[in-house]
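Re: export button greyed out
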Amino acid sequence: MSKLSTTTIIGLEVHVQLKTESKLFCGCSTQFGRPPNTQVCPVCLGLPGALPVINEAAVELAVRAGLAINCSIPPMTKWDRKQYFYPDLPKGYQISQFDLPICADGFLEITDPADPDATRRIGIIRAHLEEDAGKSLHDEASGRGDSRIDLNRCGTPLLEIVSEPDLRTAEEALAYLTKLKETMTHLGVSDCEMQEGSLRVDANVNLHIEQDEHVIATPIVEVKNMNSFRSVAGALHFEAERQLAEWQETGQTIKTRGKRTFGWDDVKEVTYPQREKEESADYRYFPCPDLLPIRIPRERVEQLRQSLGETPDEARQRLQSQHGISIYDADVIVSQGPAMVQYFDTAAMTSGDGKRASSWVQQDVMRTLKEQGTDVESFGVAAEQLGELLAKVDAGDLTNDRARDVFKHLAAHDASVDEAIKALGIESVDSSEIESLVAELLQANPKVVEDVKGGNTKAVGALIGQARKRNPNANPQLVREVALRQIEAS
Amino acid sequence: MLDSALELLRLQSAGEVSAVEIAQKALDAIEASQPRHHSFTFVDREGALRVAKSVDQRRAAGEDLGPLAGVPVAVKDVLCTQDMPTTCSSEMLRDFRPPYDATVVERLRRADAVIVGKTNMDEFAMGASTETSAFGITRNPWDTDRTPGGSSGGAAAAVAAGTVPLSLGTDTGGSIRQPSAFCGVTGLKPTYGRVSRYGLVAFASSLDQVGPIAWSADECALLLYTIAGFEPRDSTSLDQPVPDYAAATKSKDLRGLKIGLLRESLDAEGISHSVRAAVRDAIKVLADLGAEIIDVELPHREYWVPTYYVIAPSEASSNLSRYDGAHYGHRASEGVTDLLSMYCRSRAEGFGDEVKRRIMVGTYALSEGYADEYYNKALKVRRLIRGDYDAAFSQVDLLLGPVTPTPAFKLGEKVDDPIQMYLCDLFTVGANLAGVPAISLPGGFDEQGLPVGIQLQGPPLEEGRLLFVASAFQSATDHHTRRPTP
Ligand SMILES: [Zn+2]
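Workaround output, generated via the alternate export path:
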């Protein structure tokens, strides 16, 4: 039997926790990691008589997110109740958005993992706001007295971003997720901390199998609640194989079997079917009578669009054209987030040397940040200082090595660049001093003079080390130039 | 029998009676009435006396006091009270004490009212006779073999029995107006959003409103003024200034006012002679006061009840999902083997039949494949019903009609016949579906001496106009001054 040609069809639903101070419908804090059930009130506990009030900040963040992923923002959006029973859902319904989501019809461009020079446009069907549920800390099937529930997370604002089934490989799915995460963090919409659950992924996946010039679609499986990119990749690879095997065994297609809900086991690295009950859930959506529809005027959307700031793609392009750095370098800097972009911008402009600034930011700055376990906003070397330092290197006043010493000093002390240079005993050496130093060295090294005259200019290198020994501030480039000139003139 | 709220305020400022004496008198009256009428689910003797004492002390110290200082008020047991149980007359919430006050309760306290207790009701406000209460029925003070109506039966009976001059009810489909009519008192359902629902345990969120019940329109004006107004914690509350309702009731001159008579409702099937007579009498009184009476129609009236009995249960089925035994309220202890059986047993035990019936109806109406046929269609009809009201109010200032098809019926008469019970709402649910204010006021008595109500409905936010006309009507009639024999 010849090998079957299959295509994996993937659509992702990504839940992103919006970066608001307070919850979606009450004033409780959204801070992560607090003691259980300390960030709750009658509203998020779903107590009788308590009513939700919309957090405007969440609406603005959702609009920003929507604009960043090229969605349209309809003039009216409303709230619906999605109803199901679960102990971490104290109202018995989740306030969500059913038929009029806040963002519709967008797309995200990703680099094609199979061809780095090509891009793929992944459609986004919609993005809607909803409240998160709490956390059950128990074996869900037992229902006995030792079940514990933490409602701190209950009511935290989420944006659920639903893609078209446009993704074809696990690699594309990862590229999409990476791009989405980068966009959301870059614009300050979400922290996307996967280990804190502020980015969670559901994947809808099935196969298109080519057989006898027909395409057969396997039944759709939704793999729910994956908390890492590794899980997503694992689940997608696993499902592609599992569905093919299942089809070969049972012949079931999308026409003969409805959508099923699976989970992903991170340890066993397998997907597994969840309870049938959840598959047939009827959420009985209806408009939430406690909340008014939200009207977002055109002008407000335009204002938000104006104040959106650069998307990562825009930043990448600008860094290349403005500072003359490569796409690779721009990508590394942008992937560190908007604060790093700003740091680089300032350092590049102050120094007037984008390429040098880029290399320093990627090496010295990022390494030191990692060592210090800090972020660029609270870094000891200000972007202006780095720029000033690099300008001195450019002017030949400092060697790269000495500049590195200054940089280390600045990172550890509260000092200006000049103070640091002084503290390290670095003095700039004037050219007459270099002239006489070189003359002395040539005198003492006739072999070098001979070699150079014989055409081996590399021999001059031996002098540089000696010059540095006598005067650590001597600029090697200058020593080399002066030596060659003096030999030629001799 | 307690004096009117206005009289109690006057007597206190004249120094003729203290708040403690009034509270004591109210508590004694409640104690005497409870065995016969059972209007209350909880009486807060200590709390009432403590507040009354503090009012007296503050008055003696010359401090400023709120507009209801020292006046006893009863609160329907569907409104959250931090210091008293809030049961909704349900086994499900038998032991529930909310950690907060409803906005209206907060406002009563700020007005220095003396909250004496919580009144009985149909379970979760679902019913028209207070017979679905898990804690026993309430009897009509005019005839203890009859229902006080519902769901605010305890609230209306508490006033009619003379235990308190003021009480707070809630009205989702007539639950203030129908018991007010049955108990011969005055009750007002405000415009949707006029009074905050924060802390009102939801039955049908898009229909529920809190409102005042008292003997007279003037007293309703006083209580409404205290509880109305914007509440930022309630997105559906209206950010509109609250007029001085008491000032609105000063004039008794109805000249220039056009009142639309809902004549068609007088010919409705099953409407009793006494109800028809009360409306006819009212026409005459209002005309004598100078009003012009013209006939108007609300063309979709026949769809009111079916529309209501889709929308209200749908919302209820959702609102009552939270009572699952997991976090608070009744949790079954027997027959529980897993999460699902805990849910099922807790809800089976905690809810009464009528609540279960409505949850089932509502769940069905919202289900996939049925929502378009039921819930979504009902929303469309609701828009038509609102349109009828808009059209009517472009012609007239107010609408006049009956509250109920009959005076108070016998206890047990309809409790096993949901359809008959639902038809009690025939004339009242329109105001809830349209969100407009409506008032029920005593319009006469039938041959057996049972009170008969009449209803006025007004355009949105025109509670002042309703109270003005009701007050004028009461200045020319004495129905609201008649009292049941104790
Ligand atoms: Zn909260």
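The radius of gyration of chain B is 21 Å. The button fix ships in the next patch.
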